[in-house]
């Protein structure tokens, strides 16, 4: 009877015993191996251990370990993190290098992605190898050295503030968060695509001023700052004094045509020259009008000494002086000439022509200029008489 039982037992062992694969336990003593109800470990030589018979108990559904999975699970050699399954991965769930998204997702569905340095599994909402859709929370999980998502979300960056911040910006952070808008605006509330830093002290353009500080949208005339003028400092019309003062403090007044700013002593536009402190000076006439202008004697106005029409005697004398032969007189067209066109005597033909091309001939006694000479009148008179004689 006992003999039969032994034979029967031996038959079961021979027919069903499943010897486990060799695995490493904490020490070479197989008593150090994890224990599993219904399973025994034995030494397999060379310091390794194996389950004596993997079919000796029901396969565990809890507390599985790498040792058991390695010995009794033929192609799934590692236990998942909560010990409920043996899984087919290349390394243990407890390893801290070379982790991949695949390993992490199989080891623990709560932390399905490998960190950027592959040293741990994390609960980010997307893979650390993503090339878009980054958020700050995923960035800091994937790589604490680059804790913020770039503005485009294409990558994580090591800026000092979140790329979605609305204050505290610096050029360095802008360059990291938004390479296409690499400068902080002047209020440090945003990054802008200016072509130079908003803290620049030169080379300003309207384009950059408007981006860096919309409340000072125009580059000053010297380009060293931005100003709150209402027109561009490079405008060629529409000037007034307040814009000139802002654009060019050294030329604070609009010229008389409002085409630019000048360094006159007082304002050009709206000047009341009847007030003693606002009379015109030669310099102000040049500044406010143009080169070639002079102040009238009374200081009430500026005279265009280059004018080739509309001049009167006092203006010609002012512009050309009153010396011998100076063009101190105005002719009938308002051109300055050297002949006194108001004279009552002494007329000669050439002077008459100079003073008025319509009356180029002097009368006989030189008291006036006429359209025809006396001799011409005489000839016409004789001619008419002759015709009457023929009739
Ligand atoms: C699993 O391990 C825990 C704690 O180590 C223990 O309380 C529990 O009984 C184990 N479960 C099984 C099925 O061995
Ligand atoms: C990680 O992988 C690299 C190359 O794939 C390998 O050289 C290295 O030995 C691995 N490290 C571990 C701990 O498996
Ligand atoms: C154990 O982990 C697996 C895979 O991560 C998961 O599907 C399962 O729900 C977990 N079970 C428990 C009890 O936590
Ligand atoms: C990740 O886990 C932490 C706690 O460990 C939790 O506060 C956080 O909400 C989780 N994040 C995600 C994206 O699941
Ligand atoms: C200003 O601009 C000019 C030409 O664009 C450049 O050569 C110069 O270096 C700039 N100066 C500064 C201070 O940026
Ligand atoms: C200049 O023009 C702006 C608007 O173009 C106006 O607001 C401002 O008051 C004007 N200043 C003067 C001094 O006329
Ligand atoms: C402006 O004019 C005054 C006197 O007319 C002169 O002293 C000053 O240097 C001028 N300023 C500039 C910037 O040209
Ligand atoms: C007037 O003439 C002067 C030379 O005498 C010249 O420099 C200036 O540009 C002229 N002005 C105008 C408005 O033509
Ligand atoms: C010359 O013309 C100016 C401007 O029209 C005028 O103010 C001035 O009185 C005139 N002078 C003479 C002598 O006619
Ligand atoms: C007098 O003024 C006119 C312009 O009105 C100018 O063409 C001329 O050269 C000046 N003549 C002299 C002698 O200054
Ligand atoms: C010149 O002749 C005109 C008539 O042609 C005459 O009225 C005038 O008084 C004369 N003047 C002189 C100075 O002789
Ligand atoms: C010349 O014209 C004046 C006035 O225009 C006139 O009084 C005079 O008679 C004229 N002299 C001659 C010779 O036609």
List descriptors.
rod-shaped; SerH; two-stranded antiparallel sheet; single chain; Cell surface immobilization antigen; 25% helix; 20 strands; 391 residues; signal; binds 2-acetamido-2-deoxy-beta-D-glucopyranose; alpha+beta
Question: Any overview of this molecule?
Answer:
By secondary structure, the protein is an alpha+beta fold. Among the domains are: 18-88, no CATH class; 307-342, no CATH class; 344-391, no CATH class. The protein has eleven helices and 20 strands. A two-stranded antiparallel sheet has the order 1-2. The chain has a two-stranded antiparallel sheet with strand order 3-4. The N and C termini lie far apart (188 Å). It binds 2-acetamido-2-deoxy-beta-D-glucopyranose (12 copies). One 2-acetamido-2-deoxy-beta-D-glucopyranose (NAG) binds next to loops. InterPro entries: SerH (IPR009670).
Q: How many helices does DSSP assign?
A: 11
Largest sheet descriptor: 2 strands, antiparallel
Q: Low-confidence runs (pLDDT<50, min 5 residues)?
A: 1-14
Q: How do the strands line up in the largest sheet?
A: 1-2
Q: How many beta-strand segments?
A: 20
Report the structural category: alpha+beta
- Strand-residue proportion: 5-15%
The outline comes out as: rod-shaped
Signal peptide: 1-17
Protein name: Cell surface immobilization antigen
Keywords: Signal
Organism: Tetrahymena thermophila (strain SB210)
């Amino acid at each position: 009877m006992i003999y039969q039982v032994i034979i029967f037992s031996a038959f079961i062992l021979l027919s069903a015993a499943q010897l486990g694969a060799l695995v490493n336990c904490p020490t070479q003593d197989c008593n150090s191996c994890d224990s599993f109800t219904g399973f025994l470990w034995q030494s397999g030589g060379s310091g390794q251990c194996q389950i004596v018979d993997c079919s000796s108990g029901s396969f565990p559904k809890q507390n599985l370990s790498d040792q058991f999975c390695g010995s009794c699970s033929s192609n799934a050699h590692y236990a998942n993190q909560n010990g409920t399954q043996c899984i087919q991965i290349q390394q243990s769930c407890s390893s801290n290098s070379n982790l991949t998204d695949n390993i992490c997702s199989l080891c623990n569905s709560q932390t399905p992605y490998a960190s950027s340095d592959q040293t741990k599994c994390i609960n980010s909402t997307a893979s650390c190898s993503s090339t878009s859709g980054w958020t700050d929370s995923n960035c800091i999980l994937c790589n604490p050295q680059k804790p913020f998502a770039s503005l485009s979300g294409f990558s994580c960056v090591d800026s000092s503030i979140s790329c979605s911040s609305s204050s505290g910006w610096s050029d360095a952070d802008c360059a990291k968060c938004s390479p296409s808008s690499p400068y902080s605006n002047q209020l440090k509330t945003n990054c802008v695509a200016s072509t130079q830093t908003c803290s620049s002290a030169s080379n300003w353009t309207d384009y950059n001023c408007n981006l860096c500080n919309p409340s000072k949208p125009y580059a000053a005339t010297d380009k060293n700052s931005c100003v709150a003028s209402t027109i561009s400092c490079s405008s060629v019309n529409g000037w007034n004094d307040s814009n000139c003062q802002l654009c060019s403090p050294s030329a604070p007044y609009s010229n008389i045509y409002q085409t630019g700013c000048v360094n006159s002593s007082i304002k050009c536009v709206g000047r009341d020259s009847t007030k003693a402190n606002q009379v015109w000076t030669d310099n102000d006439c040049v500044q406010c009008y143009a080169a070639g202008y002079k102040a009238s004697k009374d200081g009430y106005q500026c005279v265009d000494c280059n004018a080739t029409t509309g001049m009167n005697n006092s203006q010609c004398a002012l512009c050309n002086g009153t010396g011998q032969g100076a063009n101190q007189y105005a002719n009938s067209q308002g051109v300055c000439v050297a002949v006194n066109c108001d004279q009552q005597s002494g007329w000669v033909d050439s002077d008459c022509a100079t003073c008025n091309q319509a009356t180029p001939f002097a009368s006989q006694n030189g008291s006036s200029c006429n359209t025809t000479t006396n001799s011409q009148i005489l000839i016409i008179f004789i001619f008419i008489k002759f015709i009457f004689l023929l009739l």
